[in-house]
Amino acid sequence: MATQQPTELIHTTISALNDGGVTSIVPVDGLSLIDNWLETLDDSAGNQQVVTSLRELKSQLESDAPDPVTVKTILLDLSEQLNVQASNSDASIREPLRDLSNAILTLATSL
Fold first, then answer.
1. For residue 108, what are the contacts with CB-CB under 8 A and spacing of at least 6?
2. What is the pLDDT of residue 25?
3. Of 91, 81, 95, which Cα lies nearest the Cα of 37?
4. Which pTM value belongs to this model?
5. 80, exposed or middle or buried, with CB in 10 Å at 0-12, 13-18, 19+?
């Protein structure tokens, strides 16, 4: 699969989260989204926390019995990290990142 542009991937992720949230996203779908993000993001210092959270979330989803509390904590951390990223980003990506952060927060609070 070709790597999506960040804004396209943001919209794809938001759409997946908003179209039913946790009830419609199965771990395989989540893994695919996470893999797309890991391919898109580089390991620069500015992305390191997000990359680490995504890897932790992927590990949970790949396990036989993901821990709901751990998954919720990772999602809450990821939402906060994206808010920080949004604050430090260009205006063109700021709102999409905030929307993504809010969609992840909504998912986390529904767990």
1. 72, 75, 76, 79
2. 55
3. 81
4. 0.86
5. middle
- DSSP letter for each residue of 63-103: SSS--HHHHHHHHHHHHHHHHHHHHTS-HHHHHHHHHHHHH
- The CA-atom distances, in angstroms, between 93 and each of 3, 31, 64, 70, 75 are 18, 24, 36, 29, 20
Query: Tens of pLDDT along 19-59?
Result: 755 554 555 678 899 999 999 988 777 899 999 999 999 99
Rounded Cα distance, 111 and 106, in Å: 9
Please tell me the distance from the alpha carbon of residue 99 to that of residue 82, in angstroms, as a whole number.
9
Single-letter residue type at 60: Q
Q: Which residue has the tokens 């989803």?
A: 61
